[in-house]
Design goal:
Strand content: 15-25%
Order of helices and strands: EHEHEEEHEEHEEHEEHEHEHEH
Number of helices: 9
Shape: globular
Number of strands: 14
Number of domains: 2
CATH superfamily of the largest domain: HAD superfamily/HAD-like
Distance between the termini: 15 Å
Strand order of the largest sheet: 5-4-3-2-1-12-13-14
CATH class of the largest domain: Alpha Beta
CATH topology of the largest domain: Rossmann fold
Radius of gyration: 18 Å
Helix content: 25-40%
CATH architecture of the largest domain: 3-Layer(aba) Sandwich
Structural class: alpha/beta
C-alpha cells in the first residue's frame, strides 16, 4: 500500500467488513491486539464494523463479537445479524443436509455440517489427524455449540456443509455431484466448502447495505482466501492481507501486511480510517 490513502476525506462514514480466518484471526496468535485496537478506533471514528465470514453463526464466539462489531454476515451470506438482531437466515432442508453428509462420506471426505445454532462433528472413530486439529480448534472456541452428527440425520439443522480432505477424497466427483446446486470452494486440498447457490459474502454485504441504507461507495472489506473473492470484488475498497492467496492479491485494490504483522491495523491506518 502507499504511505497514506485517505478514502474518507469528505468525512463520510464507512462500513468495513472483515473475514475471520487468516484475516482477523491467526491459529498461532489468535486475534492480534492491534486488530482489536483498530476496530475500536473505527467505531470511535463513527464507522461501522461487520464480521463477514464463511463460518456459520454458531462458529463465531461471543468473545470475538465482544471485540466491538455492529453485526455479522455469517455462513457466506446465509445469515445476517445487526446489533444482536437476526435480519435474515437461510437453512437447508434436513433431508438435503443429510444427503450431502452421506455423499461426502462415500467420496472420501469427512463432513463438517455448519449450522447457525450448532456445529456438528463426526464420530471420533472416523477422525484423521487433520480433522482432530480442526475439531480441537472449535472445541476450544465454541464447545457449547458443538454436537455429534445425528444418526440418520434426524434433527440436523445446517446452513452449509464443509468437508475435510482425506487421502481418499475425490474432489472432481464432489464438483460433479454438488456443482449445480452449490458453489464448491477448495481450500488448498485441506478443506472444501459447499455454499448454496445464490449466497455469498458479496450477497450478504449487498443485503446489509440495502437494509441499513448505506451507499455502496462507503463499503470496504479485508480478506485473504478464495471464499473472499466475491466480497472483495463487490466492495468499493478491497484490501488483501499480506498472507493472501495470489489471486486475491491481484484482485484487491490494496494489499496490507499479513495477519501476524498487524495487517488490519496497518491497512486501516494507511486508508485513513483510523
Amino acid at each position: 500500500m502507499e504511505d497514506l490513502i485517505t478514502i474518507c476525506n469528505d468525512n463520510k462514514k464507512m462500513i468495513i467488513f472483515f473475514d475471520i480466518d487468516d484475516t482477523l484471526f491467526a491459529p498461532k496468535i489468535g486475534i492480534p491486539q492491534s486488530a482489536i485496537e483498530a476496530i475500536n478506533k473505527l467505531r470511535e471514528n463513527g464507522h461501522m464494523t461487520f464480521i463477514c465470514t464463511g463460518r456459520s453463526r454458531s462458529m463465531v464466539s461471543k468473545s470475538m463479537m465482544d471485540i466491538g462489531f455492529d453485526g455479522i454476515v455469517a455462513g457466506a451470506g446465509t445469515y445476517i445479524e445487526y446489533q444482536g438482531k437476526v435480519l435474515s437466515r437461510n437453512d437447508l432442508e434436513e433431508k438435503e443436509a443429510w444427503d450431502i453428509v452421506t455423499k461426502l462420506r462415500e467420496i472420501g471426505f469427512i463432513p463438517v455440517p455448519e449450522g447457525h445454532d450448532n456445529l456438528y462433528y463426526e464420530k471420533e472413530e472416523n477422525w484423521t489427524e487433520k480433522y482432530k486439529n480442526i475439531y480441537g480448534k472449535y472445541h476450544r472456541e465454541i464447545q457449547e455449540a458443538m454436537l455429534e452428527i445425528p444418526k440418520d440425520g434426524k434433527g440436523l439443522n445446517v446452513a452449509k456443509v464443509s468437508a475435510v480432505f482425506t487421502e481418499k477424497s475425490n474432489f472432481e466427483e464432489a464438483v460433479a455431484v454438488f456443482g449445480d446446486r452449490y458453489t464448491v470452494i477448495n481450500h488448498k486440498n485441506a478443506l472444501m466448502e459447499l455454499i448454496p447457490k445464490g449466497f455469498s459474502k458479496a450477497v450478504g454485504i449487498e443485503s446489509v447495505i440495502k437494509l441499513l441504507d448505506i451507499p455502496w461507495e462507503n463499503t470496504c472489506a479485508f480478506g485473504d482466501s478464495m471464499n473472499d473473492y466475491e466480497m472483495l470484488d463487490y466492495v468499493n475498497y478491497s484490501v488483501a492481507m499480506g498472507n493472501s492467496q495470489e489471486e486475491i492479491k491481484k484482485l484487491a485494490k490494496y494489499v496490507t501486511d499479513d495477519v501476524e504483522h498487524d495487517g488490519i491495523y496497518n491497512g486501516l491506518k494507511k486508508l485513513g480510517l483510523i
